[in-house]
Amino acid sequence: MTTVGALLCQGGRDLREAGIAESRREARLLLAGALDATIETLLRDPRADVPTEAAERFHGLLARRVAREPMARLLGHAGFWTLELEVGPQTLIPRADSETLIEALVERGLSPRRILDLGTGTGCLLLAALAEFPDAWGLGVDLVPEAAALAARNAARNGLKGRASFAVGRWAEAMSGTFDVVLSNPPYIESAVIDGLMPEVSRHEPASALDGGADGLDAYREIVAQLPRLLAPGGIAVLELGQGQGPDVAKLAEAAGLHVLGARDDLGGIARAMLLSQAQKPVGGPNDPV
């Protein structure tokens, strides 16, 4: 039998040698996951014995992390906004950068009733928006059936099952009706760049959620072309942007007859969320009837 301290030392060393930042913190997370315990419990007694089965689970997780499998994938969950979400190999892992879209939406002072999320993945954008707007109902669409099913589980996990529905489809191709808010974090990485991304992304994130075509704009072309019929009068769309893509996406939007309301930077100073509308006055503002 081995101890908490011995496993943490080994884990920190192995992760550091693999080039992983915050190796000590990640070793603690992995051991806490293997023991189904909190980090605080681990640190309370480094000399505590670790059962053999838990030590084996830790070694298995450690080997996968050394191979650069993402931490959230190993633990099976990730935090986003105020939510705790299940993650899996069929979806992108939610990132803090994407919270910029929710921040931008909340800042508009809207009161939306119908929200659409295109390429929903884990459901993170839709569910975060529903958590902020308790009178709203939302629909998430994903091309991958397993992703739509996972998003539905996340809705139930976060107490939003009755206010969210999920469907399988390519963007909004077969959809009718209009929405007050359309959200999307589409694939926007240039095809030739993907292999050079950090291993956690290039090896373990689904290519269909990353690959935006030769110029990274293929998904935007499809989505923007559909927005005029999807947006209710005064409705807005909030799209996630890749670095430097703002001007190109703005041109696509203007060519489709949409107004560019602006963009919001993420914490790194990168324009991350673009807001679009087909009306000068967004729906449901502070002075509008609900």
Briefly summarize what is shown.
This protein is α/β, with parallel strands linked by helices and about 290 residues long. About 40% of the residues lie in helices and about 20% in strands.
- What are the secondary-structure elements, in order, as H or E? EHHHEHHEEHEHEHEEHHEHEE
Average pLDDT: 92
| CATH architecture annotation of the largest domain | 3-Layer(aba) Sandwich
Question: What is the radius of gyration?
Answer: 21 Å
Give the domain tally. 2
How many β-strand stretches? Answer: 11
Describe the model.
It comes from Roseococcus pinisoli. This protein is of the alpha/beta class. The protein contains eleven helices and eleven strands. The strands form three sheets. Strands 7-6-5-8-9-11-10 form a seven-stranded mixed beta sheet, sandwiched between helices. It has a two-stranded antiparallel ribbon with strand order 1-2. Helix 2 (23-35) packs across helix 4 (52-66). The longest helix is centred in the first third of the chain and has 15 residues, at 52-66. It starts with a strand and ends in a 13-residue tail after the last strand.
Descriptive tags:
alpha/beta; 11 strands; EC 2.1.1.297; 290 residues; DNA_methylase_N6_adenine_CS; 7-stranded mixed β-sheet; elongated; two-stranded antiparallel sheet; Rossmann fold; RF_methyltr_PrmC; 38% helix; 11 helices; 2 domains
